[in-house]
Automatic annotation (TrEMBL):
<keyword id="KW-0028">Amino-acid biosynthesis</keyword>
<dbReference type="InterPro" id="IPR038110">
    <property type="entry name" value="TD_ACT-like_sf"/>
</dbReference>
<comment type="subunit">
    <text>Homotetramer.</text>
</comment>
<dbReference type="GO" id="GO:0006565">
    <property type="term" value="P:L-serine catabolic process"/>
</dbReference>
<feature type="domain" description="ACT-like">
    <location>
        <begin position="337"/>
        <end position="408"/>
    </location>
</feature>
<dbReference type="InterPro" id="IPR000634">
    <property type="entry name" value="Ser/Thr_deHydtase_PyrdxlP-BS"/>
</dbReference>
<comment type="function">
    <text>Catalyzes the anaerobic formation of alpha-ketobutyrate and ammonia from threonine in a two-step reaction. The first step involved a dehydration of threonine and a production of enamine intermediates (aminocrotonate), which tautomerizes to its imine form (iminobutyrate). Both intermediates are unstable and short-lived. The second step is the nonenzymatic hydrolysis of the enamine/imine intermediates to form 2-ketobutyrate and free ammonia. In the low water environment of the cell, the second step is accelerated by RidA.</text>
</comment>
<keyword id="KW-0456">Lyase</keyword>
<comment type="similarity">
    <text>Belongs to the serine/threonine dehydratase family.</text>
</comment>
<protein>
    <recommendedName>
        <fullName>L-threonine dehydratase</fullName>
        <ecNumber>4.3.1.19</ecNumber>
    </recommendedName>
</protein>
<dbReference type="InterPro" id="IPR050147">
    <property type="entry name" value="Ser/Thr_Dehydratase"/>
</dbReference>
<dbReference type="GO" id="GO:0004794">
    <property type="term" value="F:threonine deaminase activity"/>
</dbReference>
<dbReference type="InterPro" id="IPR001926">
    <property type="entry name" value="TrpB-like_PALP"/>
</dbReference>
<keyword id="KW-0100">Branched-chain amino acid biosynthesis</keyword>
<dbReference type="Pfam" id="PF00585">
    <property type="entry name" value="Thr_dehydrat_C"/>
</dbReference>
<keyword id="KW-0412">Isoleucine biosynthesis</keyword>
<dbReference type="InterPro" id="IPR045865">
    <property type="entry name" value="ACT-like_dom_sf"/>
</dbReference>
Length: 512
Protein backbone atom coordinates (compact mmCIF):
# COMPACT_ATOMS: atom_id res chain seq x y z
CA UNK A 1 0.00 0.00 0.00
CA UNK A 2 2.84 2.38 0.85
CA UNK A 3 4.55 2.14 -2.56
CA UNK A 4 1.19 2.53 -4.34
CA UNK A 5 0.43 5.67 -2.35
CA UNK A 6 3.86 7.12 -3.13
CA UNK A 7 3.25 6.53 -6.86
CA UNK A 8 -0.10 8.30 -6.54
CA UNK A 9 1.63 11.24 -4.87
CA UNK A 10 4.13 11.52 -7.71
CA UNK A 11 1.29 11.33 -10.28
CA UNK A 12 -1.00 13.79 -8.46
CA UNK A 13 -2.67 16.54 -10.48
CA UNK A 14 -2.76 19.16 -7.73
CA UNK A 15 -0.82 21.86 -9.57
CA UNK A 16 -3.68 22.55 -11.95
CA UNK A 17 -5.14 24.62 -9.09
CA UNK A 18 -2.72 24.56 -6.16
CA UNK A 19 0.64 26.29 -5.86
CA UNK A 20 3.96 25.00 -4.58
CA UNK A 21 4.03 26.85 -1.27
CA UNK A 22 7.24 28.31 0.16
CA UNK A 23 9.15 26.83 3.08
CA UNK A 24 9.84 30.02 4.98
CA UNK A 25 12.57 30.42 7.56
CA UNK A 26 11.35 31.40 11.03
CA UNK A 27 14.38 33.11 12.62
CA UNK A 28 12.59 34.46 15.70
CA UNK A 29 11.07 31.21 16.84
CA UNK A 30 14.23 29.35 15.77
CA UNK A 31 16.35 31.50 18.08
CA UNK A 32 13.81 31.16 20.88
CA UNK A 33 13.74 27.35 20.63
CA UNK A 34 17.42 26.87 19.69
CA UNK A 35 16.44 24.82 16.63
CA UNK A 36 16.10 25.57 12.91
CA UNK A 37 12.38 26.03 12.31
CA UNK A 38 10.74 26.57 8.93
CA UNK A 39 7.07 27.11 8.08
CA UNK A 40 5.50 25.20 5.18
CA UNK A 41 3.06 27.92 4.13
CA UNK A 42 -0.11 26.07 3.11
CA UNK A 43 -2.02 29.14 4.33
CA UNK A 44 -0.93 30.76 1.05
CA UNK A 45 -2.94 28.38 -1.14
CA UNK A 46 -5.79 29.95 -3.18
CA UNK A 47 -8.28 28.73 -0.56
CA UNK A 48 -5.86 29.45 2.36
CA UNK A 49 -5.55 25.75 3.20
CA UNK A 50 -3.84 22.53 2.05
CA UNK A 51 -7.25 20.88 1.56
CA UNK A 52 -7.37 22.00 -2.07
CA UNK A 53 -4.65 19.51 -2.96
CA UNK A 54 -6.54 16.39 -1.91
CA UNK A 55 -9.93 17.56 -3.12
CA UNK A 56 -8.74 18.42 -6.62
CA UNK A 57 -6.60 15.30 -6.97
CA UNK A 58 -9.62 13.14 -6.11
CA UNK A 59 -12.13 14.98 -8.31
CA UNK A 60 -9.89 15.49 -11.35
CA UNK A 61 -9.30 11.76 -11.67
CA UNK A 62 -13.00 10.86 -11.85
CA UNK A 63 -14.24 9.39 -15.14
CA UNK A 64 -16.04 11.82 -17.45
CA UNK A 65 -19.42 10.19 -16.75
CA UNK A 66 -19.10 10.87 -13.02
CA UNK A 67 -17.82 14.41 -13.54
CA UNK A 68 -20.91 15.19 -15.59
CA UNK A 69 -23.17 14.17 -12.71
CA UNK A 70 -21.26 16.42 -10.29
CA UNK A 71 -19.76 15.97 -6.85
CA UNK A 72 -20.98 16.46 -3.30
CA UNK A 73 -19.26 16.62 0.08
CA UNK A 74 -19.84 17.62 3.66
CA UNK A 75 -17.54 20.08 5.37
CA UNK A 76 -17.64 22.95 7.82
CA UNK A 77 -14.54 24.59 6.45
CA UNK A 78 -11.45 24.14 4.34
CA UNK A 79 -12.38 20.95 2.46
CA UNK A 80 -15.57 22.68 1.37
CA UNK A 81 -13.62 25.46 -0.33
CA UNK A 82 -11.26 22.96 -1.91
CA UNK A 83 -14.16 21.04 -3.46
CA UNK A 84 -15.89 24.25 -4.58
CA UNK A 85 -12.78 25.59 -6.33
CA UNK A 86 -12.12 22.17 -7.90
CA UNK A 87 -15.66 22.12 -9.27
CA UNK A 88 -15.23 25.62 -10.65
CA UNK A 89 -11.92 24.70 -12.31
CA UNK A 90 -13.38 21.58 -13.92
CA UNK A 91 -16.69 23.22 -14.82
CA UNK A 92 -18.85 20.77 -12.88
CA UNK A 93 -21.57 21.01 -10.27
CA UNK A 94 -20.28 20.94 -6.67
CA UNK A 95 -22.65 20.73 -3.69
CA UNK A 96 -21.30 21.30 -0.20
CA UNK A 97 -23.42 20.31 2.79
CA UNK A 98 -22.45 22.39 5.80
CA UNK A 99 -23.76 22.31 9.39
CA UNK A 100 -26.03 25.21 10.31
CA UNK A 101 -23.41 26.23 12.87
CA UNK A 102 -20.79 26.97 10.17
CA UNK A 103 -19.40 30.53 10.46
CA UNK A 104 -20.76 32.80 7.74
CA UNK A 105 -17.26 33.64 6.48
CA UNK A 106 -16.84 30.01 5.37
CA UNK A 107 -20.32 29.78 3.85
CA UNK A 108 -19.75 32.91 1.78
CA UNK A 109 -16.28 31.75 0.74
CA UNK A 110 -17.74 28.53 -0.69
CA UNK A 111 -20.45 30.43 -2.55
CA UNK A 112 -17.89 32.82 -4.06
CA UNK A 113 -16.03 29.82 -5.42
CA UNK A 114 -19.16 28.58 -7.18
CA UNK A 115 -20.16 25.89 -4.71
CA UNK A 116 -23.84 25.20 -3.96
CA UNK A 117 -24.24 25.38 -0.19
CA UNK A 118 -26.82 23.29 1.65
CA UNK A 119 -27.08 23.98 5.39
CA UNK A 120 -28.18 20.88 7.27
CA UNK A 121 -27.92 19.76 10.91
CA UNK A 122 -26.02 21.13 13.88
CA UNK A 123 -22.91 18.96 13.53
CA UNK A 124 -20.54 17.61 10.92
CA UNK A 125 -21.71 14.03 11.46
CA UNK A 126 -25.32 14.94 10.66
CA UNK A 127 -24.27 16.95 7.60
CA UNK A 128 -21.98 14.14 6.43
CA UNK A 129 -24.69 11.46 6.61
CA UNK A 130 -27.05 13.76 4.70
CA UNK A 131 -24.44 14.38 1.97
CA UNK A 132 -23.80 10.65 1.54
CA UNK A 133 -27.54 10.02 1.25
CA UNK A 134 -27.91 12.81 -1.34
CA UNK A 135 -25.02 11.38 -3.36
CA UNK A 136 -26.79 8.04 -3.61
CA UNK A 137 -30.15 9.59 -4.45
CA UNK A 138 -28.83 11.99 -7.10
CA UNK A 139 -26.09 9.81 -8.59
CA UNK A 140 -23.37 12.27 -7.60
CA UNK A 141 -19.89 11.33 -6.37
CA UNK A 142 -19.19 11.87 -2.69
CA UNK A 143 -15.75 13.39 -2.05
CA UNK A 144 -14.39 12.35 1.38
CA UNK A 145 -12.50 15.03 3.31
CA UNK A 146 -9.66 12.68 4.31
CA UNK A 147 -10.41 8.95 4.22
CA UNK A 148 -9.48 8.27 0.59
CA UNK A 149 -6.21 7.28 -1.10
CA UNK A 150 -6.33 9.97 -3.79
CA UNK A 151 -7.13 12.62 -1.19
CA UNK A 152 -4.17 11.41 0.90
CA UNK A 153 -1.98 11.43 -2.21
CA UNK A 154 -2.92 15.02 -2.94
CA UNK A 155 -1.92 16.06 0.58
CA UNK A 156 1.27 14.01 0.28
CA UNK A 157 2.59 16.33 -2.43
CA UNK A 158 3.48 18.65 0.45
CA UNK A 159 6.15 16.17 1.57
CA UNK A 160 7.58 16.00 -1.94
CA UNK A 161 7.93 19.79 -1.93
CA UNK A 162 9.50 19.87 1.54
CA UNK A 163 12.30 17.48 0.53
CA UNK A 164 13.04 19.44 -2.63
CA UNK A 165 13.10 22.69 -0.68
CA UNK A 166 15.14 21.46 2.31
CA UNK A 167 17.06 18.19 1.99
CA UNK A 168 18.32 18.14 5.59
CA UNK A 169 15.00 17.86 7.41
CA UNK A 170 14.99 16.01 10.74
CA UNK A 171 11.39 16.46 11.91
CA UNK A 172 8.03 17.34 10.35
CA UNK A 173 5.20 18.28 12.70
CA UNK A 174 1.65 17.81 11.42
CA UNK A 175 -1.75 18.76 12.86
CA UNK A 176 -4.11 15.77 12.92
CA UNK A 177 -7.87 15.67 12.40
CA UNK A 178 -9.11 12.77 10.29
CA UNK A 179 -5.56 11.90 9.27
CA UNK A 180 -5.46 12.69 5.55
CA UNK A 181 -2.61 15.18 5.78
CA UNK A 182 -0.35 13.19 8.10
CA UNK A 183 -1.01 9.94 6.21
CA UNK A 184 -0.03 11.47 2.85
CA UNK A 185 3.01 13.29 4.22
CA UNK A 186 4.22 10.31 6.25
CA UNK A 187 3.73 7.83 3.38
CA UNK A 188 6.04 9.84 1.14
CA UNK A 189 8.67 10.57 3.77
CA UNK A 190 8.56 7.03 5.12
CA UNK A 191 9.43 5.66 1.68
CA UNK A 192 11.72 8.35 0.28
CA UNK A 193 13.33 9.79 3.44
CA UNK A 194 12.80 7.32 6.29
CA UNK A 195 15.25 9.21 8.54
CA UNK A 196 12.71 12.04 8.90
CA UNK A 197 10.51 11.78 12.00
CA UNK A 198 6.85 12.67 11.47
CA UNK A 199 5.31 13.92 14.71
CA UNK A 200 1.49 14.11 15.07
CA UNK A 201 -0.04 17.02 16.98
CA UNK A 202 -3.62 16.95 18.27
CA UNK A 203 -5.87 19.36 20.12
CA UNK A 204 -6.34 17.85 23.57
CA UNK A 205 -10.14 18.02 23.24
CA UNK A 206 -10.25 16.04 19.97
CA UNK A 207 -7.33 13.62 20.20
CA UNK A 208 -8.76 10.77 18.13
CA UNK A 209 -5.37 9.49 16.90
CA UNK A 210 -3.95 9.22 20.41
CA UNK A 211 -7.10 7.38 21.47
CA UNK A 212 -6.64 4.98 18.57
CA UNK A 213 -2.98 4.42 19.41
CA UNK A 214 -3.83 3.79 23.07
CA UNK A 215 -6.57 1.28 22.16
CA UNK A 216 -4.66 -0.14 19.18
CA UNK A 217 -7.83 0.38 17.14
CA UNK A 218 -10.01 3.21 15.92
CA UNK A 219 -12.32 4.56 18.60
CA UNK A 220 -15.04 7.21 18.59
CA UNK A 221 -14.54 10.06 21.03
CA UNK A 222 -17.68 10.83 23.06
CA UNK A 223 -17.26 14.54 22.26
CA UNK A 224 -14.81 16.86 20.52
CA UNK A 225 -13.80 20.43 21.27
CA UNK A 226 -14.42 22.86 18.44
CA UNK A 227 -11.86 25.58 19.16
CA UNK A 228 -9.54 24.00 16.59
CA UNK A 229 -12.46 23.31 14.27
CA UNK A 230 -10.31 22.33 11.30
CA UNK A 231 -9.20 19.20 13.17
CA UNK A 232 -12.36 18.54 15.22
CA UNK A 233 -12.86 14.87 14.29
CA UNK A 234 -14.25 12.21 16.63
CA UNK A 235 -12.64 9.21 14.90
CA UNK A 236 -9.48 8.86 12.85
CA UNK A 237 -10.16 7.69 9.28
CA UNK A 238 -10.10 3.97 8.55
CA UNK A 239 -7.77 4.19 5.56
CA UNK A 240 -5.66 6.94 7.06
CA UNK A 241 -5.12 4.91 10.22
CA UNK A 242 -3.97 1.95 8.13
CA UNK A 243 -1.33 4.16 6.50
CA UNK A 244 -0.30 5.78 9.78
CA UNK A 245 0.44 2.34 11.26
CA UNK A 246 2.67 1.23 8.36
CA UNK A 247 6.43 0.76 8.78
CA UNK A 248 9.07 2.89 7.06
CA UNK A 249 10.75 1.48 3.98
CA UNK A 250 13.92 0.65 5.97
CA UNK A 251 11.82 -1.04 8.70
CA UNK A 252 13.25 1.36 11.29
CA UNK A 253 9.85 2.00 12.83
CA UNK A 254 6.35 3.32 12.10
CA UNK A 255 6.11 6.10 9.53
CA UNK A 256 4.28 8.22 12.16
CA UNK A 257 5.72 8.48 15.65
CA UNK A 258 3.32 7.19 18.29
CA UNK A 259 4.38 9.99 20.62
CA UNK A 260 1.36 12.22 19.89
CA UNK A 261 1.81 15.77 21.14
CA UNK A 262 -1.35 17.14 22.77
CA UNK A 263 -1.78 20.91 22.83
CA UNK A 264 -4.42 22.94 24.64
CA UNK A 265 -6.28 26.13 23.77
CA UNK A 266 -3.77 28.46 25.42
CA UNK A 267 -0.80 26.80 23.71
CA UNK A 268 -2.50 27.08 20.31
CA UNK A 269 -3.30 30.75 20.91
CA UNK A 270 0.34 31.41 21.83
CA UNK A 271 1.43 29.70 18.59
CA UNK A 272 -0.96 31.89 16.57
CA UNK A 273 0.78 34.91 18.05
CA UNK A 274 4.22 33.39 17.37
CA UNK A 275 3.27 32.92 13.71
CA UNK A 276 2.02 36.51 13.49
CA UNK A 277 5.20 37.84 15.10
CA UNK A 278 7.27 35.83 12.62
CA UNK A 279 5.61 36.70 9.30
CA UNK A 280 2.58 38.90 10.09
CA UNK A 281 0.14 36.22 8.95
CA UNK A 282 -2.89 35.23 11.03
CA UNK A 283 -3.54 31.51 10.92
CA UNK A 284 -6.51 29.54 12.20
CA UNK A 285 -6.14 27.44 15.38
CA UNK A 286 -5.53 24.22 13.46
CA UNK A 287 -2.95 26.07 11.35
CA UNK A 288 -0.94 26.88 14.48
CA UNK A 289 -1.17 23.43 16.06
CA UNK A 290 2.03 22.10 14.51
CA UNK A 291 4.04 25.01 15.91
CA UNK A 292 2.40 24.62 19.31
CA UNK A 293 3.43 20.97 19.16
CA UNK A 294 7.01 21.87 18.22
CA UNK A 295 7.34 24.19 21.22
CA UNK A 296 6.08 21.52 23.58
CA UNK A 297 8.08 18.66 22.05
CA UNK A 298 11.34 20.62 22.00
CA UNK A 299 10.95 21.49 25.68
CA UNK A 300 10.06 17.93 26.72
CA UNK A 301 12.77 16.20 24.66
CA UNK A 302 15.54 18.77 24.93
CA UNK A 303 16.05 19.08 21.18
CA UNK A 304 18.77 21.43 19.95
CA UNK A 305 20.02 22.39 16.49
CA UNK A 306 17.54 20.17 14.66
CA UNK A 307 15.93 21.04 11.31
CA UNK A 308 12.20 21.13 11.95
CA UNK A 309 9.25 21.83 9.64
CA UNK A 310 5.93 23.13 10.89
CA UNK A 311 3.13 22.64 8.36
CA UNK A 312 0.97 25.76 8.59
CA UNK A 313 -2.12 24.01 7.30
CA UNK A 314 -4.74 26.78 7.17
CA UNK A 315 -5.73 30.39 7.75
CA UNK A 316 -9.53 30.46 7.56
CA UNK A 317 -10.75 32.11 10.72
CA UNK A 318 -13.46 34.55 11.75
CA UNK A 319 -12.02 37.95 12.65
CA UNK A 320 -14.24 37.96 15.76
CA UNK A 321 -12.19 35.14 17.26
CA UNK A 322 -9.07 37.27 17.52
CA UNK A 323 -10.20 39.01 20.72
CA UNK A 324 -10.57 35.66 22.45
CA UNK A 325 -7.25 34.41 21.09
CA UNK A 326 -5.49 37.56 22.29
CA UNK A 327 -6.90 37.03 25.79
CA UNK A 328 -5.76 33.43 25.95
CA UNK A 329 -2.32 34.04 24.42
CA UNK A 330 -0.95 35.58 27.62
CA UNK A 331 -1.77 32.38 29.49
CA UNK A 332 -0.48 30.17 26.69
CA UNK A 333 2.87 31.96 26.67
CA UNK A 334 2.94 31.92 30.47
CA UNK A 335 3.01 35.72 30.49
CA UNK A 336 0.15 35.80 32.98
CA UNK A 337 -0.93 33.63 35.90
CA UNK A 338 -4.24 33.78 37.75
CA UNK A 339 -4.88 32.98 41.41
CA UNK A 340 -7.72 32.82 43.90
CA UNK A 341 -6.63 34.39 47.18
CA UNK A 342 -8.42 34.97 50.49
CA UNK A 343 -7.27 38.16 52.21
CA UNK A 344 -8.55 39.77 55.44
CA UNK A 345 -11.16 42.51 54.99
CA UNK A 346 -9.36 45.33 56.79
CA UNK A 347 -7.66 48.63 56.07
CA UNK A 348 -4.41 48.25 54.20
CA UNK A 349 -5.07 44.67 53.13
CA UNK A 350 -4.78 45.46 49.42
CA UNK A 351 -1.55 47.40 50.05
CA UNK A 352 -0.08 44.50 52.03
CA UNK A 353 -1.12 42.10 49.28
CA UNK A 354 0.71 44.16 46.64
CA UNK A 355 3.79 44.36 48.86
CA UNK A 356 3.78 40.56 49.11
CA UNK A 357 4.05 40.44 45.31
CA UNK A 358 7.29 42.45 45.51
CA UNK A 359 6.42 44.96 42.81
CA UNK A 360 5.09 42.54 40.19
CA UNK A 361 2.53 43.91 37.73
CA UNK A 362 -1.12 43.09 38.53
CA UNK A 363 -3.11 42.65 35.29
CA UNK A 364 -6.51 41.97 36.86
CA UNK A 365 -7.96 42.33 40.34
CA UNK A 366 -11.50 41.26 41.27
CA UNK A 367 -12.40 41.72 44.93
CA UNK A 368 -15.47 40.63 46.87
CA UNK A 369 -16.12 40.58 50.63
CA UNK A 370 -17.53 37.30 51.96
CA UNK A 371 -19.67 36.46 54.97
CA UNK A 372 -16.62 35.64 57.13
CA UNK A 373 -15.18 39.17 57.05
CA UNK A 374 -12.59 38.13 54.51
CA UNK A 375 -12.32 39.07 50.86
CA UNK A 376 -12.09 36.65 47.96
CA UNK A 377 -9.71 37.95 45.31
CA UNK A 378 -9.38 36.82 41.70
CA UNK A 379 -6.03 38.22 40.57
CA UNK A 380 -4.04 38.12 37.35
CA UNK A 381 -0.29 38.75 37.55
CA UNK A 382 2.11 39.44 34.70
CA UNK A 383 5.00 36.98 34.38
CA UNK A 384 8.50 37.67 33.10
CA UNK A 385 10.04 34.26 33.80
CA UNK A 386 7.19 31.96 32.81
CA UNK A 387 6.43 28.77 34.68
CA UNK A 388 9.21 29.21 37.24
CA UNK A 389 7.93 32.64 38.28
CA UNK A 390 4.35 31.36 38.43
CA UNK A 391 5.36 28.84 41.11
CA UNK A 392 7.46 31.45 42.93
CA UNK A 393 4.44 33.76 43.16
CA UNK A 394 2.29 30.91 44.45
CA UNK A 395 4.84 30.19 47.20
CA UNK A 396 5.02 33.90 48.13
CA UNK A 397 1.24 34.14 48.45
CA UNK A 398 0.99 30.79 50.23
CA UNK A 399 3.29 32.05 52.97
CA UNK A 400 0.68 34.64 54.00
CA UNK A 401 -2.68 33.75 52.47
CA UNK A 402 -5.03 30.95 51.53
CA UNK A 403 -4.35 30.68 47.78
CA UNK A 404 -5.13 28.46 44.79
CA UNK A 405 -3.51 28.62 41.34
CA UNK A 406 -6.23 28.81 38.68
CA UNK A 407 -3.94 29.30 35.66
CA UNK A 408 -4.84 25.87 34.23
CA UNK A 409 -8.53 25.94 35.20
CA UNK A 410 -10.54 26.23 31.98
CA UNK A 411 -13.73 27.25 33.81
CA UNK A 412 -11.89 30.02 35.65
CA UNK A 413 -10.41 31.35 32.41
CA UNK A 414 -13.64 31.18 30.42
CA UNK A 415 -16.22 32.13 33.03
CA UNK A 416 -15.24 32.74 36.67
CA UNK A 417 -13.07 35.78 35.96
CA UNK A 418 -16.14 37.52 34.52
CA UNK A 419 -18.50 36.45 37.28
CA UNK A 420 -16.75 37.29 40.56
CA UNK A 421 -19.55 38.79 42.62
CA UNK A 422 -20.20 36.88 45.82
CA UNK A 423 -21.59 33.62 47.16
CA UNK A 424 -25.21 32.67 46.53
CA UNK A 425 -25.33 29.98 49.25
CA UNK A 426 -27.92 27.92 47.37
CA UNK A 427 -27.87 24.54 49.07
CA UNK A 428 -28.91 22.42 46.10
CA UNK A 429 -27.22 24.34 43.28
CA UNK A 430 -25.46 22.22 40.67
CA UNK A 431 -23.12 23.66 38.06
CA UNK A 432 -22.77 22.57 34.42
CA UNK A 433 -20.79 23.53 31.33
CA UNK A 434 -22.98 23.28 28.25
CA UNK A 435 -21.85 23.59 24.63
CA UNK A 436 -24.34 25.44 22.41
CA UNK A 437 -24.29 25.59 18.62
CA UNK A 438 -23.43 29.21 17.85
CA UNK A 439 -26.54 30.25 15.94
CA UNK A 440 -29.74 32.22 16.51
CA UNK A 441 -32.29 30.38 18.63
CA UNK A 442 -29.83 28.10 20.43
CA UNK A 443 -30.46 29.69 23.84
CA UNK A 444 -34.24 29.69 23.34
CA UNK A 445 -34.09 26.01 22.41
CA UNK A 446 -32.13 25.25 25.59
CA UNK A 447 -34.60 27.12 27.82
CA UNK A 448 -37.64 25.58 26.17
CA UNK A 449 -36.27 22.06 26.54
CA UNK A 450 -35.18 22.73 30.10
CA UNK A 451 -38.74 23.75 30.92
CA UNK A 452 -40.05 25.34 34.13
CA UNK A 453 -39.04 22.42 36.38
CA UNK A 454 -35.53 23.66 37.19
CA UNK A 455 -34.73 27.19 38.31
CA UNK A 456 -31.65 28.80 36.69
CA UNK A 457 -29.42 30.25 39.42
CA UNK A 458 -26.36 31.26 37.36
CA UNK A 459 -25.75 31.86 33.68
CA UNK A 460 -22.67 33.09 31.82
CA UNK A 461 -21.96 33.19 28.09
CA UNK A 462 -19.57 35.18 25.88
CA UNK A 463 -19.44 35.04 22.10
CA UNK A 464 -15.94 34.01 20.98
CA UNK A 465 -16.59 34.03 17.24
CA UNK A 466 -16.42 30.24 17.14
CA UNK A 467 -18.85 27.61 15.88
CA UNK A 468 -19.84 26.75 19.43
CA UNK A 469 -20.79 28.79 22.48
CA UNK A 470 -19.66 27.60 25.89
CA UNK A 471 -22.11 28.35 28.65
CA UNK A 472 -21.79 28.08 32.42
CA UNK A 473 -25.19 27.39 33.98
CA UNK A 474 -26.23 26.84 37.57
CA UNK A 475 -29.48 24.99 38.30
CA UNK A 476 -31.41 24.67 41.55
CA UNK A 477 -31.77 20.93 42.00
CA UNK A 478 -34.31 21.06 44.85
CA UNK A 479 -36.58 18.65 43.02
CA UNK A 480 -33.70 16.18 42.75
CA UNK A 481 -34.39 15.12 46.34
CA UNK A 482 -37.45 13.28 45.08
CA UNK A 483 -35.96 12.30 41.74
CA UNK A 484 -32.13 12.28 41.92
CA UNK A 485 -31.71 11.54 38.22
CA UNK A 486 -34.35 14.01 37.01
CA UNK A 487 -31.99 16.89 36.34
CA UNK A 488 -29.53 14.73 34.40
CA UNK A 489 -32.38 13.19 32.39
CA UNK A 490 -33.55 16.69 31.47
CA UNK A 491 -30.07 17.70 30.29
CA UNK A 492 -29.69 14.49 28.31
CA UNK A 493 -32.96 15.21 26.51
CA UNK A 494 -31.76 18.69 25.51
CA UNK A 495 -29.03 17.00 23.41
CA UNK A 496 -26.40 19.71 23.90
CA UNK A 497 -23.01 18.40 25.11
CA UNK A 498 -22.60 19.10 28.84
CA UNK A 499 -20.48 18.18 31.85
CA UNK A 500 -21.20 18.70 35.54
CA UNK A 501 -18.54 20.74 37.38
CA UNK A 502 -20.18 21.43 40.75
CA UNK A 503 -16.85 20.66 42.44
CA UNK A 504 -14.90 23.22 40.39
CA UNK A 505 -12.39 25.08 42.56
CA UNK A 506 -13.04 28.57 41.19
CA UNK A 507 -16.79 28.12 41.57
CA UNK A 508 -16.41 27.05 45.21
CA UNK A 509 -14.08 29.97 45.96
CA UNK A 510 -16.10 32.76 44.40
CA UNK A 511 -19.68 31.79 43.65
CA UNK A 512 -21.08 28.81 45.55
Amino acid sequence: MLSRLVRQILQATVYDVAIETPLDAAPRISQKLNNNIRFKREDLQPVFSFKLRGAYNRISQLPKSQLERGVITASAGNHAQGVALSGQKLGIRAIIVMPKTTPDIKVQAVKRLGGEVVLHGDSFDVANKYAIACAEEQGMTFIPPYDDELVMAGQGTIANEILRQWRDVDYVFVAVGGGGLIAGVAAYLGDVAPHVKVIPVEYDESACLKAAFDANERVILPSVGLFADGTAVAQIGEKTFQVIQLQKSDNSGPIVERDVVLVNTDEICAAIKDTFDENRSIVEPSGAMALAGIKKYVAEHGLENKNIVSIVCGANMNFDRLRYIAERTELGERKEAIYAVTIPEEKGSFLNFCRTLQGRNITEFNYRVDENENAQVFVGISLKAGEKERHEIYDLLKSKYDVDDLSDDEVAKLHIRYLVGGHANIENERLFRVEFPERPGALLTFLERLGPTHNITLFHYRNHGAAEGRVLVGLDAEDAKQNPDGLIETLENISYPYVEITDNLGYRRFLK
